[in-house]
Each structure stands twice: as C-alpha cells, then as structure tokens.
Specification:
- The complex is a heterodimer.
- Chain A is mainly α.
- Among the domains of chain A are: about 100 residues, no CATH class; about 80 residues, Tetratricopeptide repeat domain (Serine Threonine Protein Phosphatase 5, Tetratricopeptide repeat, Alpha Horseshoe), CATH 1.25.40.10.
- Helix content of chain A is about 70%, strand content about 0%.
- The N terminus of chain A is likely disordered.
- Chain B is an alpha+beta fold.
- Chain B has one domain: 2-Layer Sandwich (Alpha-Beta Plaits).
- In chain B, the strands form two sheets. A four-stranded antiparallel β-sheet of chain B has the order 2-5-1-6. In chain B, strands 3-4 form a two-stranded antiparallel sheet.
- In chain B, a hairpin with a 2-residue loop joins strand 3 and strand 4.
- The mean pLDDT of chain B is about 90.
- Classes of the chains: A mainly alpha, B alpha+beta.
- At the A-B interface, loops of A face helix 2 of B.
C-alpha cells in the first residue's frame, strides 16, 4: 500500500487491511510455517471479514480475529487437500494441535521483526532480499516492484519464488537472530533499506515515471524498525534518509533540472522532517561510537543547518568524513572528504587529494569524481582543464538532468 | 535436518601457509570435530586428497568414460566435507562458520535432500 495515498472514507475492512495486513501476515507465516500458505490464509481471512463484519460488526480485536480466521482457513484447506495427498494430513494435524497462544502486542511485534529479518537474510541474493522485503513487508505488488526497478514483473516474480523456495528447502528459520548474530544481521537489514532509499533518490532525477516512491517506502521501513529495534544505527539511518528526503521538493527545478544544495530554495524544505531527523540523530549519537549511518546523518545535518555553503561547518564535515573513513574505507568517501577539504581550506588542497585518488585508478569511471575535479579547476580559473574534466563527466553520464547541468557548466567556460 | 558442508579452497598452493599455521589448522580442526561429535551434531567428516589425484567417470550409451582430473577445473577445489545435523540454516551457518577451515577456505552449505 503506497504510504502517501490519501484514502478518505474507506470502509473499515479496507482501513484495517491497510494498517494490519502485514502484521497479520507476519504472524500467519510463523503459525503456518510457510509464506505461500500464509498469503492464501491472509487473503481468505480478509474475504471472510468483508462478508461477516458488515453483518456481525467489527470484532474487538480485529487483528487477532484475522489471525485465527486465517489460521483456521489454512488448516481446513490443507485437510481438504489431504484427501488427495495423505502426507498433508499429518501437516494439518500438527498445525491444528499447535496452540497459537495469545496474539499479544509483543508477540506480534516480534513477528514483524522476524519477517524483516527473513526477507533480508544474507543467504538470499541481495536483489531477492530487496524484492521480498517490498513484497512481504511493504505489501507492494510484483507489478509495483517491477515498475520501481524498471524491470519486468516476471523477473521480480521469479526472484520472489526462488527466494521463498530457498527459505523452504534450506530451512531458513523464522526468527530474530541471536544476540551474537544480531549486529551483522541488522547491518544487512539496514543495507537493504539504504539501497531502496538510494534507488528512489536516483529515480527522482530521472524522467517522471509513475512509480512507487521507494524513498517513502524506505523511510516507512526505517520507522517500522525504530519501533521494533531501537538501536543507534537504526536511528542514524532514518535520520540520514529524512535529512535528504526533507529537501526533495527543492532538489529539482520545475524544468526537471538538478538544483545543487547551495542554490536550493530553503523555504521548500520540509521542516517537520528536518526536526524529526535532528531528534533521531541526537539518539543515534548518544550511545557509544557512531556507526556509518550516524556519521552520514551527522554530515547531512551539518549541511541542512548551515545558512549557506560558505558558513557551513566544514571543519565538522571533514571530521565526520574522517570518522566514516575509519569505519568504512572507500574511495567515494575519500572523494567527498576532498570536496569538504576544498571548502575548508582551498580548491588547491581539494584538487591535490582528488588527483591522488584518480591516479590510483580507483574512480576512473565514476562521473562525480570528474565533475568534482572539474569544479576545482573552475574555481582555480583553469578553464581548459575544467572543461576537459566536465567533458569526461558528461561522457560517463546517462542521466538527462545531470547532462543538462554539465552542459551548462561547459558552456559557461567557453 | 542434515546439511552437507563442502570445503573449497585452492589447497594453499598459490600462497602456502606457514608451517605453524598449517599445524594449528590441523589441531584446531581435530578439536572442533571432536567437540561437534560429542554434541551429536557431526554425522560425517572427511578430508580429500588434492584435486590432482581426482578421476572422473561417466557412462554414456553403456560405455564407461574415464577422465583425469576433477569434474570442474576451477582454482578452488573441493578439499573435504562434513555433514552436520542442525535445526535450521542459521544453526548450520553457526556451526560451519566456527570450523577452522573457514579461516582460509570457503564452506558451501547444502541442505541434504530427504529421500522418501
């Protein structure tokens, strides 16, 4: 269900579907031990609700009602099939003997978390993790996911089928990882959410396609996770996404062109989201050594709160990049740090660092390395070198709005 | 549920380990197998002679074809295997990742198919 879809005057069943279907599914997967059975059961439970609730009224605890109805329907369906396949009879008996227990808030919350962890299990290919998370946790259809990744629905469907088949055959458990494995497994979940956000962020510059807003989905997942597993890096990632998302309306001009941070109309920034991000960043930084997402959120926060480029706390930005590099050495982070050093000191200092990175051959095909270097030459008045570097960046870019931006820069240097 | 854990490596031919590390690996592996066996989760364990000693056979149209070498001629070769009993994949991963072989080689975990 797209999160920003306004849905006024929904009937109660629809409303409950929108709010509760993922939670009901998460518990049904645990009770039935199978994704496909649980999905059928979820469907049957809502069909029953649509028939019965208008007549009998909405039960006191609709979620619990849907879970027990779905479970009951699934067991009945297996019993019916058992007439043709005796081996199913045993499964049905086992399922019906197993007492599902109470559907209290904590148990259901744990099921939500189990669902997130199984979808992001490292034994599944990364693209399968992404597709499965969007399908099962976010409740998107295969068609919506395919559209978001500009691919065919059959490709996405196949990824999901394969992933579920591996979960079943290799017996990937439906559990919250043990304390020892939790940090690594949480990293995996955060990576999936971060990738989704980046995918949505990139797409926002592309031709206007009607597609699911992956940034909004990623933020929704981040919010879900802060409720389920309140840990510093979870807060850090959500803060990072919100700082960027808060600028979404100011980031593209009405022409579709890219507007750089320094030239954005700050009155179009989403101040509520910035305030939320500030509070989350505070939480992310209040426990121990900041992780990679907290560091990036801190950088985004410094940019957001500076009045303009000149008055940005560049010393602080560089320090956060140093901390980030220590945690995760990467030439792209080095490049960003070089840009920050150019702002803190001067363009020559930035250029020296950028040339050193490029000479190592690490970022030869990375368009932003060339445009950043071009920017240094431009600021130093070395027009021919600036133009050549912008040309290199242009040759590496397919993104239309970025190409326009680079062409404008080149034209200014003619 | 049974999982076969297949140990793949290049036999350290390209980058031989120091004698002390080879000895440590050997001792640690024996200790690990012993511990696992005591817990009842180790069903089988074997180390293999190098892939250069392998022979591959096929029968086609009733004829036996014998060829020298392993089935796939890759740098990383099967060097050994162990079979464990585990509740689920997470437990199998936990068991396999504690095996000394994972320090230098890679362990592929495959669920054993239940034949009915």
């Amino acid at each position: 269900m797209p999160p920003e879809e306004a849905a006024p005057a929904q009937c109660p069943v629809q409303q409950i579907y929108a709010n509760e279907s993922r939670r009901v599914l998460a518990t049904l997967i645990r009770l039935l031990g199978d994704f496909n059975l649980a999905e059928d059961a979820l469907h049957d439970a809502f069909v029953a609700a649509a028939e019965q609730w208008p007549v009998e009224g909405i039960p006191n605890n609709p979620t619990a009602w849907l879970i027990s109805t779905g479970r009951f329907k699934a067991i009945n369906a297996i019993r019916r099939r058992a007439r043709f396949d005796a081996s199913l009879g045993k499964i049905a008996e086992e399922l019906s003997r197993h007492d599902p227990g109470d559907f209290d808030v904590e148990t259901i919350k744990d099921d939500d978390l189990r669902l997130v962890f199984i979808c992001c299990h490292p034994a599944l290919a990364l693209e399968a993790q992404i597709a499965l998370t969007l399908r099962e946790v976010c409740g998107l259809t295969t068609e919506e996911i395919a559209k978001a990744f500009v691919t065919k629905p059959s490709t996405i469907a196949q990824r999901i089928v394969r992933a579920k088949s591996k979960i079943r055959t290799a017996r990937v458990p439906y559990e919250i990882p043990s304390a020892g494995a939790l940090p690594e497994r949480l990293d995996g979940v955060l990576r999936v959410i971060y990738l989704l956000f980046n995918e949505g962020y990139e797409a926002s510059f592309g031709p206007a396609l009607t597609r699911v807003d992956l940034c909004a989905e990623a933020i929704r997942l981040g919010r879900l996770l802060t409720g389920l597993l309140p840990q510093p890096e979870v807060y850090g990632l959500l803060a990072l996404m919100l700082f960027h998302h808060a600028r979404r309306h100011a980031r593209t001009a009405s022409s579709g062109d890219l507007v750089l941070l320094g030239e954005q109309d700050r009155s179009r920034w989403d101040t509520a989201q910035i305030a939320e991000a500030d509070a989350l960043l505070g939480k992310a930084l209040s426990h121990g050594k900041p992780g990679i997402y907290a560091c990036q959120a801190a950088i985004a926060g410094l940019h957001t709160h500076a009045q303009d480029s000149a008055s940005t706390d560049w010393q602080g930005v560089v320090a956060w990049y140093d901390a980030l590099l220590e945690l995760e050495p990467s030439p792209v982070i080095e490049l960003n740090r070089a840009s920050a050093i150019a702002m803190r000191d001067d363009a020559n200092a930035g250029l020296r660092l950028m040339n050193a990175i490029l000479e190592r051959g690490d970022l030869t095909d990375y368009r932003f390395a060339h445009s950043a270097r071009a920017d240094m030459y431009r600021r130093l008045g070395r027009r021919a070198e600036a133009r050549a570097a912008y040309e290199t960046a242009l040759a590496l870019t397919n993104q239309e709005s970025e190409r326009r931006f680079l062409r404008t820069r080149i034209a200014e240097l003619e | 549920m049974k999982y076969a854990c297949l140990v793949y490596g290049d036999g350290n031919l390209s980058d031989p380990l120091p004698e002390s590390e080879t000895q440590a690996l050997h001792d640690d592996s024996i200790a690990y197998h012993e511990e696992l066996r005591k817990s009842g989760r180790l069903l089988a364990v074997e180390a293999l002679e190098p892939a250069s000693t392998a022979t591959t056979v096929r029968t086609r149209n009733g004829r036996v074809l014998v060829t020298d070498g392993p089935f796939a001629d890759t740098k990383e070769q099967l060097g050994g295997l162990f079979i464990v009993e585990a509740r689920d994949l997470n437990e199998a991963i936990r068991i396999a990742s504690s095996h000394p072989a994972t320090r230098h080689d890679a362990v592929e975990i495959r669920p054993v198919r239940e034949l009915s």
